[in-house]
Amino acid sequence: MPVLVVVGAQWGDEGKGKIIDLLTERADIVARYQGGHNAGHTVVVGANEFILHLVPSGILHKGKTCIIGNGVVVDPAALLEEMDAMAKRGVKFDGHLLISKNAHLIMPYHKALDIASEKLKGTKKIGTTGRGIGPAYADKINRKGIRMADLLDPEVFREKLACNTGEANFLLERFYDAPQVHLDQVYEEYMAYAKRLKKYITDTTLFLDESVGKKKKILAEGAQGTHLDVDHGTYPFVTSSSPTAGGACTGLGIGPNTITEVVGIVKAYTTRVGSGPFPTELEDKTGELLRARGKEYGATTGRPRRCGWADTLIIRHAVRVNGMTSVAITKLDVLDTLDELKICVGYKYKGKLYEEMPSELSVLEKGTPQYITMPGWKEATVGIKKYDNLPKKARAYVEKLCKLCGVKPSIISTGARRDETIILEQPFKKTAVSRSR
Ligand code: GDP
Ligand code: IMO
Ligand code: MG
Questions:
Q1: Which of 150, 225, 312, 348 sits at 20 to 30 Å (Cα–Cα) from 76?
Q2: How many angstroms separate the CA atoms of 77 and 423, rounded?
Q3: Taking the CA atoms of the chain, what radius of gyration do you get in angstroms?
Q4: Does 13 qualify as catalytic in the annotation?
Q5: Which of 129, 331, 332, 382 to mutate to test the pocket of ligand 1 (most atoms within 8 A of CB)?
């Protein structure tokens, strides 16, 4: 009954989609445990590129079950749009997709409140994706969210909707000076979504429990990254959920003892979208080169991603709070042309040297990163499949990075495609602690 959790080690967009798609081959079930359509996971299969937002990245493999867990927030319009677009490209959902009846719905007023709140914050904005993620999770924690199961009961749905739109409209109109949402219109719209989604909505925790019992291999798919985690990230410049590995337990309803492996996805350099501290950010030609070579533009919003050097404080913190058993280093090939590479090993702030991730934003914002320098390999690594075929200096970079972060690499990615990968250690090797029943 192994459960392998895939989690981003930095600020998202590490290449989780590619690695999840790759690992799906050895899995039976792929289950998304948090986030919503703020995520953008790119999977390249041959000449075809798919960008997945809500649908688990395992859907491109035939015969696998994909689950949208209770920890996910679902905008049904966005989900159906994504499914329709994929169905046109031959992807099948019936019998393959299950949606938790406890997953919360993103409503039009969540999106309106997200956008209005960001507007009001002005220069202090978080730089959200504007998808209504924060307000939807706020309603969930505030115990007034509307769940998938409510969608199937028109009376309950109408009652909750009336209550919530009343409050949201008051805020939208009186506080934010923004347009209101219309109760009847939203009701009709969501009832139409209910008709189409009904067949997928179920108790996914039961399904997962049975699957664990049958020793099925489960891949738990995290969205975003450790430093966007509401507890462990650079708060308040974070998302509103728990991308870290513990989120897989609450977001899917599985026990911690079912988790056998936690694979952290580490981009060989660092990127971030939206506001917030980024100590190793490069606002120069090297930053531009990383953006151009790495095609670092948001898969969801198209925004240019901020780029910088690898940061061992950021990664080590992620290794620790997720209990990573290994890491997949992605986008090594993007660094191929650089003369030299820097790795951050500390921050200096007001005369003090920080060697572990500080929680004070001031240190991250104003501290001076301390670097070690490694020589570039100046050779193409694109598509290399064997570790020994990597240039010596590229191996030295990977080994140094992993040593400094206290973690071993299990996968190295040398291109966007499935086969452009070095597998050092096969996933799903370990078996879980046995259950008492
Ligand atoms: P995710 O959100 O973590 O799934 O990552 P994204 O899909 O948003 O961004 C990662 C981008 O890098 C995508 O365009 C991938 O196709 C691409 N990618 C993934 N791995 C590699 C790699 O090893 N090399 C290169 N050049 N591109 C990669
Ligand atoms: P994947 O899964 C990168 C960022 C936003 C913003 C902050 C809060 O593709 O790695 P939100 O809309 O979630 O309230 O925005 O989080 N963000 C991401 N950045 N990759 C993502 O997902 C992200 N999802 C949210 O840019 O800074
Ligand atoms: Mg992404």
A1: 225
A2: 38
A3: 22
A4: yes
A5: 331
Direct distance between the N- and C-terminal alpha carbons of the chain, in angstroms, rounded to an integer: 13
Output the DSSP codes for 239-257. -SS--STHHHHHHHT--GG
Catalytic residue among 21, 37, 41, 114: 41
pLDDT in tens, 156-197: 999 999 999 999 999 999 999 999 999 999 999 999 999 999
Bridge partners, residue 417, by sequence = 44
Query: Within the chain, which residue ranges are assigned CATH 1.10.300.10?
Result: 104-200
Residue 229 C-alpha to ligand 3 middle, in angstroms?
15
Q: How far is CA 283 from the centre of its chain?
A: 25
- pLDDT value at residue 428: 86
What's the rounded Cα separation, in Å, for the pair 181 and 161?
11
Q: Residue 12 Cα, ligand 2 centroid: separation in angstroms? A: 7
Question: What's the whole-model pTM score?
Answer: 0.97
Q: Which is nearest to 233 in space by CA: 8, 2, 65, 4? A: 8
Pick the CATH number of 104-200 from 3.40.50.720, 3.30.565.10, 2.60.40.420, 1.10.300.10: 1.10.300.10
Could you give the CA distance from residue 28 to residue 202 in angstroms, rounded to a whole number? 18
C-alpha to C-alpha distance for 137 and 270, rounded to whole angstroms: 27
Give domain 3-96+203-423's CATH superfamily.
Answer: Adenylosuccinate Synthetase, subunit A, domain 3 (3.90.170.10)
* For the CA of 238, the nearest ligand: 2
* The two structure tokens encoding residue 284: 């120069």
The predicted structure's pLDDT at residue 298:
87
What is the per-residue pLDDT for 3?
A: 96
Is position 209 annotated as part of the catalytic site? no
- Residue pair 247/223 in contact by the 8 Å Cβ criterion: no
Residue 31 near residue 67 (C-beta atoms within 8 A): yes
Residues of the chain under the 50 pLDDT cut: none
